[in-house]
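Deviations from the work plan: none for this task. Representative record:
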Amino acid sequence: MFTAQNLISVCITSILTAGLYAIMSYGLAVIYGVMKVVNLSNAGFLMLGAFMTMVYAQTLHLDPIAGAFLNIPLFFAAGWLVYVALVRRVRQALPIASLLMLFGLWLVLQNLALVVWGSEDQSIITRYTYKALPFFDYRVALTRLIVFSVALAVMAVLHVLLNHTYIGKALRATVQDPEAALLAGIDTERISSFAFGLGTAFAGFAGGLMTLLFSFTPDFGGPFQLKSFTIIVLGGLENLAGVTVGATILAFAESFSVLFMRASLQNVVAYALLVVALIVMPGGVASLFGRRT
Amino acid sequence: MRWCRRAVVGVFLLPVLVLALVTPGRPAAGGAEIKIGTVLPLTGAFGSSGNYFKQGYTLAIDDVNGAGGLAVGGQKYHLTLIVLDDGSDGTRSRSLVEKLVTDQHVNFLLGGYDTSLVEAQEVVPDQYKIPYVEGGGAASEIFKRGYKYIFGTLATVYDLSKITMNFLSVQIADGRLPKPLTIAAVWENTDHGKDYINAVTDEAKAHPDLFRVVLNQPFQLNGSDFSPLLQQVKASNAAAFLSDAHLPDFITMHRQYLQAGLYNQFVSYGARGPDQKGRQALGSGADYLVAGLWWTPALKDAASQLFTERWKREYHETPDWFQALSFETTRALLTGISNAGTLDGPKVRDALARLTLRSMLPGGVIKFQPNGQVATPYVMVQNLPGNAVQIIWPPNLPETRGATLPMPRP
C-alpha cells in the first residue's frame, strides 16, 4: 500500500522504533568499545531491568519511567561487580572465554528469573499505556514517544559525559588506543570496570523503559539481542554515535520491508543487514566518515 | 586437588539430584504401575500454557490414584506421571519424548502444547507403537501425516476460523457489521496459522458478497515487535481484524494494536482473548475481543461448572480451555487404557480409536475421527468489562447472548 499517508506513517513508526533500538544497544557498544568484549549477558540484564521495574511498580507503585531511572545505579553496581568478579579474570584469555562466560551468565540470569517470577507473561499497565496522541492526520503511541524522547535525552547526556568530563574523555581514549591511554596515565582497568557498569546500567534502564511497550518473560531480551548486534555492527562496533545511525537504518529497513515482503520475514532483514554489513562494510557506517568517536 | 574432588562429587551428585526432581512419587510397595510420560514447554515462550497442561494432567491422574488406581483387566494400577520440560524448543521436545520411551520406559504418552511442538513429537509414538493423546495441537496438518498412534482432543483450527466466518455472516445479516465486510487477516506462519487463513480465504471466495480480504499477511511466531505489521493493518482500513496468534504473540500484538490507536469494528485473535493471563496482561484493553474456544468456564452445563469449581478450589484461579482440555485429554487416554483391558500399545490404540467418552467439551462427547482428531463444536465468546466472558455463539445454547458489535471504541 504505497499511499503517501502510509509512507509517512511508516516513517513515523521507524523513527520512534529507532529510539527504542538505540537505547537497547548503547550498553553493548560501550562495553565492546572499551574492552572488545561481546557482552552476551546484555539480554539477561535487559530482562532483569524489566522485572525489577515490575517489582518497583508492584511494591512502591513506581511508574515504569521512574523505575527505569532507579535501575541505573542498581545495574551500574551489578555490572561493576560482574566485571570485578568475572570478566576481569578472563579478559586476557582468548575472546571465546569471555563470550562463553557471559553467555553462561545470561542463562543463569534467565533461570534465576524463572525461579523467582515463573515463566508467565508479565506486563505493567499504566494510565497512559494505551494512549495515542494525534499528530496531524496520524496517531502516535504515547509510550513510543516517551521511549523516543528518553533515548534522545540519554544520547545528549552521553554526549556531554563523553566530551566534557574526565571520565568520558578517558573512556574515549581507551576505546581509541588502550596502550596509549595507559601511557597517558589513564587507569584503563578502572575505565573498563566503569564501562562495564555503564553498559549494564544502560541494559537495566532500557529493560525498564521497554516495559512501557512490551509484556515480558524470562526469555525477554533474547530476540532484541540480535537486533542490538546488527545495530552496533552497522554503527561501527566501537562507535557510540554510530549506534544511533545503525538503529535508524535497522528500524527503517524493518518497517519498510513489510511493504515489499511478508511480515513473517521481518527478522530476516536484521540477519541480512548483519551479514551485508560484516562483508561490505566491516567498519560500519563510521568507516564511511573515516573517524571514531 | 580440592576443586577436583568437588567436581567429581558434583558429576555424581548432579544426575542423582536431577533424577530426584524429575521422578515423582513411587507406587506403593508391591503395587502395579503405569508410567505416563509427557514433554511440555514448562519454560520458554509457551511456559504459561505448558504449566496449565501440567496442572490439568496432574489433577486427572491424582483423581484416579486417589480412587485406588486405574482398573485395567481386573487389576488396579497406580499411575505415575513423568513430566519433562522442552523449553518450548521443537528439537529438544522430540528427543525428550524419545528419551521418555527409551530411558524411562513409559507405557503411554500425553501430548505437548502448541501445534509446532506436537508436530515435532508426533513421529515418536508410531515408531515405538505407544499411544499418544494430545490436547495442545489443533492444526489439521498434525493428523494428515498418516500416524496411527496420535489422537487429538482439539477440533481443527480450520473449523475455528470457519465458525468465526459463519458468526460474522450472521452479524452482517443482522446489520451489526457492514456488507461486504472488509477483513485484515494476519496469521502466525505455522500450520496452525495456515489452517486459520485457509478457512478465511475459502469463506471469502465462497461469499464474495459478504467478505473482502484486504490484507493477508503471515507473521513470525514469538515475534517481539509487530508495529510494522500493524501499520499495514491500519493502512488497510478494514472493518474487521482477524489474527491467529498464540498467547505470547496475542499479548504483544494486541498491546501494540491499542498503543498505536487502531480501531476495528470486530477484532478476534482466534482462540485467544479470554485467557486469564491475557486479560491480566492487557487489562481493560482486552474487553470486547471475540474468540472461538474449545471450552470455556462460561458454559453452564453441570460438568463444566463442576470442573470450574473444582479447579478454583484446587488452584485458586479460574480455568481456561488449556486446563479443561488437558484434564479431558488425560481422561480420554485413561479410559482408552481401561477399555482395552491391557497395557499393550496396539490394543490401547484400537480402544482409543473406538472410544466414545462423555465429556464437558461442547457437544458432550469425545470421539476420535479416523484420522485421530475430534470434531467437537466450538463456542464463541466475547470479553466483557470486569473480567467477564459471555457466550455469543452457537445460538442454541441457553447461556448464549447477543454480541456487542460493532465493538465500542476504547
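Chain B touches chain A at residues 42-45, 47-48, 50-51, 186, 189, 217-220, 222-229, 231-232, 234-236, 247-248, 251-252, 255-256, 258-261, 277, 280-283, 285, 410 (CB under 8 Å).
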